[in-house]
UniProtKB/TrEMBL annotation:
Protein kinase domain boundaries: 1-162
Source taxonomy: Eukaryota, Viridiplantae, Streptophyta, Embryophyta, Tracheophyta
A Gene Ontology molecular function term of the record: protein kinase activity
Name the record gives this protein: Protein kinase domain-containing protein
A GO BP annotation: signal transduction
PANTHER family recorded: CCR4-NOT TRANSCRIPTIONAL COMPLEX SUBUNIT CAF120-RELATED, PROTEIN KINASE DOMAIN-CONTAINING PROTEIN
């Protein structure tokens, strides 16, 4: 297994209390790319959360902990133990666990990056302050109660939430320096 010296996204989110918006966009973009790859290959991660996203010092982002992952089949997927705060409503009702459940968990991860807190509350009860309307719309596409209405990873990747990430040619340079600074400040390597 590859060593990712930046730790996990949950630790960083909780230490920072709230990640900068451009960092949230970058990490979400990377997670979506990972989900697109997995879903395109018929795999559901089944446990997307910030704790299962590992970071490198140069901005690398990787999904981790595939112990709950399932290959998509025509049969109902087994319901297994998952972290309740990130669990899609259809799973708690014993319905099929599919690609939309990964999308629900992704949105919970975005909430965690935005608030620095574990998303124990239902989306209706979440009070998300400091989030632009565009970002709320993005979360709304992910938090659809009916799985068939949730956007797929490929659709979400084109959402206006990511517009500045795709258009700004300096985005990645600024992003990586910000991520490097955050990781080093929070680890105590930079005074």
């Amino acid at each position: 297994m590859e060593d990712m010296e930046g730790g996990d996204l949950s630790s960083l989110s909780m230490r920072c209390k709230r990640l900068p918006e451009m960092v949230i966009k970058a990490y979400t973009t990377s997670i979506l790319k990972g989900l697109q790859y997995l879903h395109g290959n018929g795999i559901i991660h089944c446990d997307i959360k910030a704790k299962n996203v590992v970071l490198g010092f140069l901005g690398e982002v990787k999904l981790a902990n595939f112990s709950a992952a399932k290959r998509i089949s025509n049969d109902l997927l087994d319901i297994h133990d998952r972290t309740l705060g990130w669990m899609a409503p259809e799973i708690s009702k014993g319905r099929e666990q599919g690609m939309p459940s990964d999308i629900w968990s992704l949105s919970c991860t975005v909430v965690e990056m935005t608030t620095g807190k574990v998303p124990y509350l239902s989306p209706e009860k979440l009070k998300l302050t400091g989030i632009l309307d565009c970002n709320l719309d993005f979360l709304g596409k992910c938090f659809m109660r009916e799985p068939s209405e949730r956007w797929m990873a490929s659709q979400l990747h084109r959402h206006p939430f990511f517009a500045s990430a795709h258009l700004n040619k300096y985005f990645h340079q600024v992003l990586y320096s910000t991520i490097y600074r955050l990781l080093n400040e929070k680890s105590g390597l930079i005074p």
